[in-house]
Amino acid sequence: MKTRQSGQVLPLGLVLVVFCVVGALMLFNTGQVASDKMRLANTADAAAYSGALWQARALNYQAYANRAMVANQVAIGQAVSLNSWMNYAAVTSEQIATVTKPVPILNVVTSGIQTGVTAADKVVALSTQAMVTVSSIITRVLSASQDAMIAATLYNTSEIISVVASETDPRFHTNSGYGLLQKGLNAVAWSSFSKRYDKNDEPAMRERQSLIMESRDRFTQERNWELFGSWVPIGGLTVADLVRQGTTKLTAVDTSNGLEWEWMAKDTLSIQTKKFGFFSSKKAEIPIAWAASFANSKNSKRTSQNQRCNRLQVFGGSYGSEACGKFVDDNHTSEGFADNNVRSLAGRATRRSMSGYAGVQSFWVLSDESRSAEQAKLSVKVEVSLPSEQLRGSDTVLQADTLAAPVEVAGNALSSISIATVSYQRPNDFFLNTSKLEKANAYNPYWQAQLAPVSFAERTGALALRAGFL
Question: Which tens digits make up the pLDDT trace of 387-442?
C-alpha cells in the first residue's frame, strides 16, 4: 500500500535558503570592504601625488621666476648700454660736424649725419628709459610672486590632500594621527627647503650679481673696436690707432641700508699714439668722443660710485677714472671725461642718469642644506582612512538590523598609505650627456613628482598610531 508523503523537505530548504542568504550577505560585505579598500588606495595615491605635484610646480615656478628676474636685469643692462651707445654716437657726430665746419662741402654731410643721429638718440633715450622702468616693475612683481607662492604652498599642500580625499568620497579623511603627523613634517621640510635672500644678505646678493654679469649679451659685455687693428705709422717714430672701447657693468655699494645697485655703461673713442725713443716709448691718448649712462637703485642723478666721479678733475689728470673704477683698458682719459660729464665741443651732456631702476630684488633659492644634499628631495606621506562604522555593509543597504553583519578591522578603520616624492631630475635628452647627476638648483625647472614604495616600517607606524600604541 502506497503512502503519500509531502512537505518534509521544506524545513531543509528553508535552512539552505538562510545559509545562502547569509553567505550572499557576507560575500556582499566582503566585496564592499575590498571595493572601499581599493578606492582608499587609489585615493591615497592621488592625494599624495597631487600634494607632491603642487610642491614640484612651486619649485619650478621658483626657478622660472629666478630666470626671469635675471633676464630682466640683463634687459635693464641692455637698455643702459644702448642709451650710452646712442649718446656716444651723437657726441661723435657732433664732434666731427664741429671740426668740419671750416669745410662747407664736407660739413653739409657731417651736419646731416649729426641731425639724423641726434633724432635717433632722442627716440632711443625715451624707449630705453621706458625699458628700465618696465623691467624693474616686472622684477618687483616676480619677487613678490615668489613670496606668495612659497607661503601658499605651505598651506595648499595640506589642503589639496584633504580635498582630493573628500571629493573622491565624503567618508574619506586624511586627519588620522599618522596623516596629521606627516602633514606637519612636510610643512617643516617645505619651510626649510628654500630660503629667501634680500639686500642685507650680501654673499647671496653678490652671487646673484655674478650670475647676472655672466648672463650679459655680447653688446653689453664689450663694445670694442679698432680701426686698423695694429699700430700704423703717422710720421717719424710715432704710430697710432683709432680705438673704440665700451662696456656695461652691474655694480653694488655696501651701505648701512644694505647693498645699493647701479648699472653703469661707458663708451669711448680715442686716438692712441706711441712715440718711440732710444730706450723707451711713450703713449698718449687723444680723446675724440665719450659717453656714459647709469641707473641706480637710489634713483639719484649722481652715481653710486666714489663721489670723485661727480667732480671735474684738473685737465690732464685722471678725470675720475681711477676713482670710479676702470671700465675700459686703454681710453682712460675719454673714460674720465665720461665719468665727469665733460661736455662735447657743441655743449652736449655726455653722462646721463636713468630713473626707475629698483635694483636686484629679494629672491628665493634652495637652502644651503638642500644644495649640499646628494639628492635634494621632499616627501609627501598620506594616510586616507575610512572609519569602520561608515563601511557600507548589508545592514546599510537593506536597512535591516536583523541582518546586521558588522565588519571588524584593525584600528576600527580601513586605511591606505601612500608616499610621493619631489625630486630634481633633468629630462632625458638624446643630444645631451645625462650620465652625470646634476645637482639640484633654483634656476632649472626640472622638479618632478612621483609615487614611491611604502615600507613596512611606515605601515607599522601608522597602524600603531591608529591603534593608540604611540
Answer: 877 666 555 555 555 555 555 555 577 888 999 999 998 876 555 555 566 789 99
Q: DSSP string covering 314-373, please?
A: PTTS-TTHHHH---SSS-HHHHHHHHTT---TT----EEE------SPPEEEE-HHHHHS
Write the CB contacts of 448 (distance below 8 Å, at least 6 apart in sequence): 56, 422, 423, 424, 425
Judge if 98 and 234 occupy the same domain.
yes
Q: How far apart are CA 177 and CA 404, in angstroms?
A: 30
Integer Cα distance of 380 and 256 in angstroms: 42
Please indicate, yes or no, if residue 3 is contained in any of the structural domains: no
| Closest by CA position to 447, among listed 152, 47, 53, 145 | 53
Name the CA radius of gyration of the chain, rounded. Answer: 38
- Domain assignment present for 2: no
Q: Is 299 left (phi over 0), alpha (psi -120 to 50) or beta?
A: left
- % of the chain at pLDDT higher than 90: 55
Note the pLDDT of residue 37.
83
pLDDT given at position 394: 56
- Residue-level pLDDT at 408: 59
The residue out of 313, 330, 353 marking a domain boundary is 353
Same domain, 286 and 408: no
Same domain for 153 and 126: no
Closest listed residue to residue 297, CA positions, set 83, 140, 106: 140
Q: CA angle, 327 as apex, 322 and 328 as ends, to 5°? A: 100
Distance of CA 87 to the CA centre of its chain: 34
CB 94 within 8 A of CB 345: yes
Least confident of 10-14, 95-99, 229-233: 10-14
Q: Report the candidate in 381, 390, 380 with the shortest Cα–Cα distance to residue 414.
A: 390
Residue range(s) defining the domain that contains residue 239: 69-146+198-353
| Rounded alpha-carbon distances, angstroms, from residue 104 to 45, 97, 101, 206, 347 | 85, 10, 6, 54, 21
Which uninterrupted H or E stretch holds 183? helix 177-193
The most distant pair of C-alpha atoms in the chain lies apart, rounded to whole Å, by: 159
**The C-alpha cell that represents 206 in the structure block:** 653678490
Instruction: Say if 461 falls within a structural domain.
Output: yes
